[in-house]
Amino acid sequence: MIKTWGQLWRNGKMIASDTCVSEKHDMSDALQECIEYFGHAFDMEAPMWHSAHTKQLRDFQKMVFTREDFIDRISFDRFEMQLIERD
């Protein structure tokens, strides 16, 4: 089980925020479920996952997705997802 906090930022201000809880036991599956949840909640496409995001998650329990991580044009500067609880 994991709990994540997703946030959208534009011009240095948080414009949207929500949490996601996944009961999946596999970390990759749980993260994917939360990314899909935030995509629906924030009306955005799922960002591309790169090795830098894996390193951010490992080192900081947080990932930052910028415009370069999305195929379509986005209306925000970055999407952050922070791991706030893990069983």
User: What is the tally of helical segments?
Assistant: 2
Helix fraction, binned, reads 25-40%
Content of β-strand:
35-45%
Domains (count): 1
Name the structural class: alpha+beta
SSE run: EEHHEE
Mean pLDDT: 96
* Rg on CA atoms, Å: 12 Å
Separation of the first and last Cα atoms: 5 Å
Q: How many strand units?
A: 4
Low-confidence stretches: none
Largest sheet: 4 strands, antiparallel
Strand order of the largest sheet: 2-1-4-3
- Shape, please? globular
Can you tell me about this structure?
The mean pLDDT is 96. Strands 2-1-4-3 form a four-stranded antiparallel beta sheet. By secondary structure, it is of the alpha+beta class. It is built from two helices and four strands; from the N terminus they run E-E-H-H-E-E. A hairpin with a 2-residue loop joins strand 1 (2-10) and strand 2 (13-22). The chain has one domain (2-86). The longest helix is centred in the middle third of the chain and has 15 residues, at 27-41. 17% of the residues are buried.
